[in-house]
Amino acid sequence: MTEIDRLVLAPDDIDLARSPLGRELGHETYVLGAFNPGLTRLPNGNLLMMVRVAEALRHPIRDGHVHAIRYDEAGGRFTIDAWPLEFADTADPRKFMIRGGGWKIMALTSLSWLLPVELSPDGLGRIAIHYDKAIAPRYDLQCYGLEDARISRVGDRFFMTTCSVSPERHSTTLYSSNDALDWHFEGIVLDHQNKDMLIFEGLIGGKYWAQTRPLGDLYFAYPPGSEWRAGPSINLASSPDALHWKPYEKPGIRPHAGTVATARMGGGTPPILTDDGWLTLWHGVEPSGIVGIYRTYWSILDRDDPSKLVRTDHAPLIEANPDLTRPIEEQMYLHDVVFTTGIVDAGDHFVVASGEADLACRITHIPKARFGL
């Protein structure tokens, strides 16, 4: 089959008049990005993207201050905080660093919420945007937003992991659903700065399994000459109920010392079971500029012990595609970034969903033969 690759949702497709932030802010906002969509197949056969909408202040810098949107649980409303510009580093359009205090302290120029977008069964046509099913922050632990949903179907139940951002913690929160449209908040399942949690789409030994990616500022060195590079890696954990997780003793997918393309890495799509094992797509980041170059790679893991690698490919599977974003080039603030977040089996191929340039949603059809399946 011919690979299909296109953008299916961009910022201008979002109607902010229907945003859960409403008009209570009193300041003009715009869609900084509609991207990094979780993906699953609905009971009716259509596909469902859970899109991260980053809603930003049109003029964050004014009156000598830089401003951030925050949800106030006590007041039950969204509000705006002002930080003196002299204490802020605003080099990155997505965030600003606050100087002083002895720690790295960050605030965001936008607040992210999640929007369900229903697509045709092939993922190429838009059926409906379910504004009435949008998920916005409702607790202080989410006060700076909800980011990067990943959806897994295990049996008849849907599970969605999200990153919840606040001064309290940068945690992984879980939602569950019977239909992938109406979601129940289950709470925090992984604590501070453990991102890219992906629940396997099936049980292993009667347990739920997940990929995780804890972050830190310190990593211990591998021995000289090792094939592995110290740094963030994709770890594994198991659970009896999808709520309480125990880290696995063996390592998962680690960065290779022979390439800078995986100097930083993390999970992409929830592992999906194939005849050869669990197929997982993940991202590797090559250092470059402020953000780096994000690419998508793949691995197949053993069906009984996902710490064992069956096969992989060091060549990228998906890279940023400037041809796709050329029609919306005036809205771009990042380049060389593709962040793959969802996969669905479609017979002889997979439908893969990615965020392109932290701006738009991209759907790619990839033949199973590409993975040797």
Automatic annotation (TrEMBL):
Pfam families: Glyco_hydro_130. GO terms for molecular function: glycosyltransferase activity; hydrolase activity, acting on glycosyl bonds. Keywords: Glycosidase, Glycosyltransferase, Hydrolase, Transferase. It comes from the Bacteria. Belongs to the glycosyl hydrolase 130 family. PANTHER family: GLYCOSIDASE. This is Glycosidase. It comes from Sphingomonas montanisoli.
